[in-house]
Amino acid sequence: SQTIHQWPATLVQPVGSPLSLECTVEGTSNPNLYWYRQAAGRGLQLLFYSVGIGQISSEVPQNLSASRPQDRQFILSSKKLLLSDSGFYLCAWSEPLGGQPQHFGDGTRLSIL
Amino acid sequence: QKEVEQDPGPLSVPEGAIVSLNCTYSNSAFQYFMWYRQYSRKGPELLMYTYSSGNKEDGRFTAQVDKSSKYISLFIRDSQPSDSATYLCAMRGGTSYGKLTFGQGTILTVHP
User: Fold this and answer.
1) Of residues A1 and A111, which shows the higher confidence score?
2) In degrees, to the nearest 5, what angle opens at C-alpha A111 toward C-alphas A110 and B2?
């Protein structure tokens, strides 16, 4: 069966520091991968998606970037964090065929001080 | 106007009640409809996934889609305290990468 792992579960960072969040998927090949952010009391906002190694599409211009160095690895990064980057970050995957649902990891809660 | 509207609640019901959760949408391109359950400090968990108009049942859960009215529902029968969570509706068009548009989520509490 497929599993998705995200780490760390929680992170507290000072303003201006760099960020690296990692997500890996097991049990599937060539998945579509996604990064979402969830603000308190709000729905999920898609940040980035990837349909293959090195292929990244950005949905929202911001202080963040994403990379996919391996088939089942997705990384969310920032060079300098802003206070507004605080939130709950979720990674998700879906099968590459059209019409498949997305499955989420347990997220990283990021607090910027 | 948001593409997907969902009443955030909160909704509080007694154990054993039938719960009805709803979303409306405005984008006719949406073809696939999902319901996710999210416990506090956890990621969303897929509950139901439907494509066509009509009903889909899975245990105590029934998903209903009415594309003509742009309205989807999730019914929970014999609700349990363990059903207490935030319920998110989500939908997408037919593109291969599958961008989801989410509702705001409804907070549900089932009290014993």
Assistant:
1) A111
2) 70
